[in-house]
Amino acid sequence: MIEFQNLKKVYESGGQQVAALDGIDLKINKGEIFGVIGFSGAGKSSLIRCVNWLEKPTSGKVIVSGHDLTALSVREIREVKRNIGMVFQHFNLLNSKTVFANVAMPLTLAKVPKDEIKKRVHELLEFVGLADKANSYPDQLSGGQKQRIGIARALATQPSILLCDEATSALDPQTTSSILQLLKKINKEYNITILIITHEMSVIREICDRVAVIEAGKIIEEGTVFNVFSSPKTPTAKNFVSTVMNDQIPDSIKQVIKKQQGLQKVFRINFVGNSAGQPLLSQVAKKFNIDFNVLFGNITELQGTPFGNLIVEFQGPDSEIRRAIQYISQEKVSIKEVTTRAS
Amino acid sequence: MLVNQEKIIEALIETVQMVAFSLLFSALIGLPLGILLVVTRKGHLLENTVVFNIINSIINIFRSVPFIILMVAIIPITRMIVGTSIGTAAAVVPLVFYAGPYIARLIENSLLEVDPGVIEAAEAMGATPGQIILKFLIPEALSSLVLGFTIATIGLVGASAMAGAVGGGGLGDLAITYGYQRFDTTVMLITVAILVVMVQGLQSFGNILSKKIRRR
C-alpha cells in the first residue's frame, strides 16, 4: 500500500547537510495499522510527509497504492493526495469556518455537488460523534473534539490511506484513548490503511499491528508490535518499551536481592501467549527439590496476546536449579538469570 | 469665516472621492502584490526568489519616498494617465503609488499570520495554489485584512489632505488655502474636526467589521 525504497531526505542548514531520512526501506500493507516511533528529530515527521508529498525526498522512491510518486506530475500527485487523508497534531482546522465547512472542504475542493457534500458531511459528523456541532466554530471545541473534526475531514473523500502525524500528542490521556479507539474503528469499518507516527509507545501498544523504530533517519527495528514489545533488540527500542512495559526490577527488590547471599538465584521469566496460562511454577515446585519466591511480576496484553514478566528467586541446590531451568526453557517461555546490576 | 457651508461640503466630497478611488485602485494593485510577496517567499506555496526580490525592492523603493516628494516626482506619469497634474482625479495617481505598496505590505503581514499548519492541511487535501489562496489563506486572514485596510484608508485620508495642498482639492486644500494662508482659524478647526470624526468613524467601523468576521 505504501512502500519506501532507499528513501533519503537531506536538508541544508547553514551550509551543513543534515540527513533527516537516511535510506529508509519500509513496506506498509493494505489494511494494517502501522506505527513509526522515534524521538523528536529522528526523522519520523519527514517520513510521513513524504507519503503525501508535503515533503519531497532527495532520492529514493515512495510508492503509494502502486503509484511511484517520484514519477508523477504535480497534477497527478494532487489526485493521489485525494486518496490519502491526514490528521495533524495541532488539528490545522480553519478557524474562520464552521465545523461543517471544515469537514466539507476536501469535497468542495474536489467540486462535489452541494447536496452530496451535505449528506456526506452529516454522515461523517455522525461517525465521529459530533453531529450536533455542525454549526460551531473550531475555537468553541475541546482538543479532542477538534481532532474528531480533523479525522472527519481526513475521511471526507473516502481515502484508502490515513496518515496520523502525532495525532494524539496534544491531547490528554483519556482523550488520546478515545481518539485511538476511533482510529481503530475507522480501520475496521472502512478497511483504511493507517500510518501513525508518534513518540508515545502507549499509542503503538494500543492500536498498531506493526511498528518500526526510527533513529537518526534509519529504521533500526521493525516487526509486529508483539515481537518488538516482547523482545526489543536495540537500546532505543528497549527504552521505548520500558516506557509502557513496567519490566524493570524496582530498586527496593534489588536491595533485597543484594542483601541475601548464598544459595538462591534470581531469574527473569517471560511468558508469552498461552504459556501465560500454564501453572508452570507450581509444576516446577512439585517436580524439583527447590523453593521459589516471586519478587516482582506483571502481565500485559499486547495485540490480544497476554505477555507476562516475572522475577523469581529460586532457592535450592545448584543441580536442581539447573534441571528446573531446563524444564522451564520450553517454547514461548524464556528464562534468564538476573544479576542485580544488569537487571 | 471666509467660506460657506457649501464649500466645506464640496471639499468633504472631494476628499471622500480621492480616498475612495485611490483605495479602490491601490487595493487592486496591493492585494495581488501582497499575496505574491507571501506565496513566492522561501518555503512557501510558489517559492520564487526572483519574483519575490523584484516585488520586494519595488515596494521598498516606493515606500521610502516621502509622499510629498513622490507626488511631485511622478507628475509626468500623472499627466500621462489623467492628462493633467492638477485636480482631484490627478491626486488619485500619486495616492495610488503611495497606498498600493503600503497595502501590499499590510496584506503581506496579515497573510503571514495564517497558521502554516492550515496551509499544510490544504496541501495535504490536494488543493491547488489558487484554491489555497482563495479558500484558505484569505478567509483565515480576513479579519486581520480588514484591520489592515482600515489602517490604509486612514493613511489615505491623511495623504489626500497633503495631495490637496498641491491642487488636488478636498479638505486639506481648504485648510491650507483658507485656514493657514488666510489665517481663518474657524475653517482650520472645522476641517480638522471633520478629519478627526472621519478617522474615528473609519477606525470604529473597521474594528467592528473585523471583530464580526472573527467571531461570527
From TrEMBL, chain A:
Any one Gene Ontology BP term: amino acid transport
Domain ABC transporter positions: 2-241
Name used for this protein in its record: ABC transporter
Domain of life of the native organism: Bacteria
PANTHER family cross-referenced by the UniProt entry: AMINO ACID IMPORT ATP-BINDING PROTEIN, METHIONINE IMPORT ATP-BINDING PROTEIN METN
GO molecular function: ATP binding; ATP hydrolysis activity
Organism of derivation: Cytobacillus firmus DS1
PROSITE patterns (alphabetical): ABC_TRANSPORTER_1, ABC_TRANSPORTER_2
SUPFAM superfamilies: ACT-like, P-loop containing nucleoside triphosphate hydrolases
Keyword annotations of the record: Amino-acid transport, ATP-binding, Cell membrane, Membrane, Nucleotide-binding, Translocase, Transport
Repressor listed as a keyword: no
From TrEMBL, chain B:
A Gene Ontology cellular-component term: plasma membrane
Pfam families on file: BPD_transp_1
Subcellular location: Cell membrane
Origin: domain of life: Bacteria
Membrane topology: Multi-pass membrane protein
Alphabetized SUPFAM superfamilies for the sequence: MetI-like
Annotated signal sequence range: none
GO biological process, one term: D-methionine transmembrane transport
ABC transmembrane type-1 domain boundaries: 12-204
Principal place of residence: membrane
Keyword Coiled coil found: no
Keyword Chloroplast part of the UniProt annotation: no
UniProt keyword list: Cell membrane, Membrane, Transmembrane, Transmembrane helix, Transport
InterPro entries listed in its UniProt record: AA_ABC_Transporter_Permease (IPR051322), MetI-like (IPR000515), MetI-like_sf (IPR035906)
Transmembrane annotation, as ranges: 20-39, 51-75, 81-100, 145-167, 187-209
Family membership: Belongs to the binding-protein-dependent transport system permease family. CysTW subfamily.
Protein name: D-methionine ABC transporter permease
Source organism of the structure: Cytobacillus firmus DS1
